[in-house]
Amino acid sequence: MNERLEKRFEEIEVLAKKHGLDFFPVVYEEVPREVIWDIASYGLPTRMSHWSFGRSYVHQKYYGEMGYSKIYELVLNNDPSFAFLDLTNSDVVNMLVCAHVCAHSDFFKNNICFARTNRNMVNQAERNAKSMDMYKNKYQIDAVEDWMDVGFALDAHLDWRLGEDRQRYPEPEMVQQVIRSLPFSDLHGDDEKPSVKQYIKNSQFPPFKEKDLLFFLVNYAQMLPWQREVLSIIRSEAYYFAPQFLTKIMNEGWASFWHAELMYEYQNLSPEEHLEFSKAHAGVVSPGGGGGFNPYYVGFRVFKDIEERWDKYYKEGQKNQSFMQSAAIEAYDDKGNVVMSKMTGRQKMFQVRAEDDDISFILNYLSDDLVEDMNLFTYGLRGKSEDPDSDDIILKSRKAEQVRNIITEKLHNNGAPLIYVLEASSGTLVLEHDPLEEMPLDPKYAKETLKYVRAVWKNNVVLKTKDRYSKAFEYRASQDGVIMVDSNGDEMEVCDPEEAEEDQAAP
Amino acid sequence: MGVIRNKIPWDLRQRGQMDSNRHAQKIKEAIRKNLQHIIAEEEIISTDGKRTTKIPIKYLDSYHFRHGVPKDGVGHGDGKEGDVLKEGGEDGKGKGNKAGDKPGSNIYDAEVSIEELTRMMLEDLGLPWFEDKEKKQIITTHVKYTDLRKTGPMPNWHKKKTILENIKRNASEGKEPRFGDLQQDDMRFRTWDEVIERHSNAVVYLMMDRSGSMDEPKRYLCKATFWWICRFLEHKYDNVEVVFIAHDYNAQIVPEKDFFILSNDGGTRCSSAYELCLADIKDHRPLHVWNIYCFHFSDGDNWGDDNDRCVQLVKEMLTKANMFAYGQVEYGRYGDFQTALLESLKKIEHPRMMTTVLSKKEDVYTVLQSFLGKEVEKNKETK
Question: Which residues in chain A (446-505) have CB-CB distances under 8 A to chain B?
Answer without folding.
Answer: 446, 448-449, 452, 468, 497-498, 501-502, 505
